[in-house]
Write a structure and sequence with these properties.
This protein is of the alpha+beta class. It has a single domain, classed as Nucleoside Triphosphate Pyrophosphohydrolase, CATH 3.90.79. It has three helices and twelve strands, in the order E-E-E-E-H-E-E-E-E-E-H-E-E-E-H. The chain has a four-stranded mixed β-sheet with strand order 2-1-8-5, covered by helices on one side. Strands 4-3-9 form a three-stranded antiparallel β-sheet, with no helix packed on it. Strands 10-11-12 form a three-stranded antiparallel β-sheet. A hairpin with a 2-residue loop joins strand 10 (about 115-125) and strand 11 (about 125-135). The mean pLDDT is about 90.
């Protein structure tokens, strides 16, 4: 869920620091989200996960649409980000089992060219360099960084 909310005279987006002990992508920055349960739509799963992870009820949101599906090789997930907006700054209630921390960067912070960087990663004997976004002593990379880039490109076209 890419959730836009007002804060300090500009739009913000919540990003979670996943708990280290989670089996997939532990310790990484991500959007609230997770697996679709039987009978759920993509939007219903995004709303459920937003509520489970950050305590935000879906009835206050306005759904805006979906971003492009993105295949994440490392965890074998096909992720379809859903974009929504909420009219008031929410009261976040992070679930301690899933969320170790919360970032709420503004769109200005996310588009700051000085925040753009690269990260060298070693996985299974491979070494590669990935683009990343450095915010508040955190590194946002991989699928989350790719989804943010698409969202920001679309948001820029709409302004």
């Amino acid at each position: 869920m890419v959730l836009l909310f007002p804060g300090d005279r500009q739009w913000r987006i919540p990003l979670t620091l996943r708990s280290d002990f989670l089996p997939n992508h532990g310790g990484q920055i991500s959007f609230p989200g997770g697996r679709i349960e039987a009978g759920e739509t993509i939007e219903a799963a995004a709303l459920r996960e937003l509520h489970e992870e950050l305590g935000i009820a879906g009835d206050a949101l306005r759904m805006l649409g979906r971003l492009s599906p993105l295949y994440v090789f490392n965890s074998n997930f096909l992720v379809t980000p859903v974009v929504a907006v909420i009219g008031d700054a929410p009261q976040f209630l992070p679930c301690p089992n899933e969320v170790a921390g919360l970032l709420t960067p503004s769109l200005d912070e996310l588009t700051d060219p000085h925040a753009r960087d690269t990260l060298t990663i070693q996985r299974r004997g491979l070494r590669f360099v990935a683009p990343c976004l450095r915010l508040q002593d955190q590194c946002i990379w991989g699928a989350t960084n790719m989804m943010l880039a698409e969202f920001l490109a679309v948001a820029t076209l709409c302004t």
